[in-house]
Amino acid sequence: MASKYTNSERLDKYLSTQLNISRSDAKEFIKKRLVTVNGEVGKLYDMKIDPETDRIAAEGKEIVYRKHIYIMMNKPQGVVCSTRDGQSKTVLELVPPELRRDGLFPAGRLDKDTEGFVFITDDGVLAHNILSPKRHVSKVYHVRFEEEASESYIPAFEKGLELDGGDVCKPAQIEILEDKHEALVTISEGMYHQIKRMAEAVGNKVTYLKRIRIGGVDLDESLALGECREMLHKEIQNIYTSFME
Ligand code: URA
Question: Whose CA is closest to atom 2 on ligand 1?
Answer without folding.
Answer: 193
